[in-house]
Each structure stands twice: as structure tokens, then as C-alpha cells.
Hints:
Largest sheet: 3 strands, antiparallel
CATH architecture: 2-Layer Sandwich
Shape: elongated
Number of domains: 1
Radius of gyration: 24 Å
Order of helices and strands: EEEHH
Strand order of the largest sheet: 2-1-3
Mean pLDDT: 78
Helix content: 25-40%
Number of strands: 3
Low-confidence stretches: none
CATH class: Alpha Beta
Strand content: 5-15%
Structural class: alpha+beta
Amino acid sequence: MKIQGDIMWGCSCGHIFYGEEPPEECEKCNSLDSFIVMPEEIIKIREIDMLEEKLELDKAEPKNAKLPKKKDNSSKQNRRRSKK
């Protein structure tokens, strides 16, 4: 996620990096000095896409979704101990 004040850098492979300075090497494709400052139009489009993706994920995951219950073996273990 973009942090205010950071610059958006793009590698030729499509990897995006946010920071004051670009990395020397791309962590995705290992290219050296391949980052350029992304144009403002692309930044806006990317931020809109990220927001849309987040909204889709929020819709797909119900807020009150129940997690599967863990199996409680403590009562079985207590019964085994009491029989001994």
C-alpha cells in the first residue's frame, strides 16, 4: 500500500516499489537499475484498481463468518486419566 510522501517506482517486469529511492535490484526479476518513476496517471489508475480489489474482497468475506471450531480433546484426556 502506498505511504504518503513515497514515490511509486516501476520496474520493466511490472514490479512496483514505494519509497524515496528505488532499489538497485528488482526483487522479482533481479534486473539492476531498472526502476523508473511511474507517471501520475498510472498511479491514479493503480490506486483505483487496488481500492476496487479491496472492495471485492470485503464483499466476498462476510464480516460475521464463523471459523471452524477446534476439536476439544481435553475432556477425552481427562476421562482417560480418571480411568487409570
